[in-house]
Write a structure and sequence with these properties.
With about 290 residues, this protein is α+β, with helices and mostly antiparallel strands. The radius of gyration is 20 Å and the shape is globular. The strands form four sheets. The protein has a seven-stranded antiparallel sheet with strand order 1-2-8-9-7-6-5. The chain is about 35% helix and about 20% strand. The C terminus is likely disordered. It binds adenosine-5'-triphosphate and magnesium ion (MG). Magnesium ion binds next to loops.
Amino acid sequence: MALPDDVREAFDAWESARGLLLLRRGLGDTVAGWFDTARPALLRERLGRPVRALPGRGESAVYAAGGRTFVVKRCRHGGLLRPLTGDRFLRGGRFVEEVALTLRMARAGIATPAVVALALTRRWHGLLLAHLVTEEIPDARDLWNFVTAPENGPESRAGRARRREAIRAAGRVVRAFHDAGFYHADLNLRNLLAREGDPARALIIDVAGSRQRAAPLAEAERIDNLARLNRSLDKLCHTSGAAVPRADLLRFLSAYHRAGADAGATTPPLRHLAAAAAAGYTRLRRLLW
Ligand SMILES: Nc1ncnc2c1ncn2[C@@H]1O[C@H](COP(=O)(O)OP(=O)(O)OP(=O)(O)O)[C@@H](O)[C@H]1O
Ligand SMILES: [Mg+2]
């Protein structure tokens, strides 16, 4: 498989007809013992017991090695394909591309956990199994979890402040992501991380399938991406019965609006964004096109 130059520079690679292993130079040594470089494969029996489980589909957990902690994720299909194909993939290119995207994000100053290793293992019928290892952000929880946590609720002044800070930080990091030309294929509240100890700095995760344009994202794509985020909020509120005040949405949008660092970037007018929050995707499209 042709590896992008930036991946080749940052990772040691073992490739054979049976798979591909990428280990991050400098960081990868710590977890090298988890892998069989000859197969190449992640050997689950070498992981030991997880330090903690993670929310989500249960395919990710935190493991320790060399006094550090890492998130090990067994990648699975999303959406309709999942019941059919589960964790088997035809091609591994999207995972290599995901690794490349995280490197480019870091270069653009957009916080995302560093990828430490990727193992693609060819199984029966030629299908691939993919394991992705990232550094753990120890005090992080996803934004949905963060804003609905009782300790970040409106009752205490400190909780309120933390929650507002995290929402603004999310607005800023998504803005920086768009300004750098990235479009997130699955922008939702569970793919934004907020830090309990440092809510002013949010992270973006799960960039598989995302794209980077040569220029800052065009307005229509920004709105499209933000509308997707808004739909995910609607869905989470609907399925959980929890409510997120409109003020939080406006806070996010206003942080997004104000954070533009790149003078050349197009800024969607705040009233469009507010309309997106207020009216949802369908009405928004009608407003813009
Ligand atoms: N590097 C990390 N550090 C700390 N927590 C993380 C990290 N990566 C993921 N998490 C947490 O684990 C949860 C599950 O993440 P993950 O993306 O691995 O699985 P998923 O969301 O179920 O899968 P996908 O989004 O790819 O469909 C995240 O919402 C987040 O709370
Ligand atoms: Mg996710």
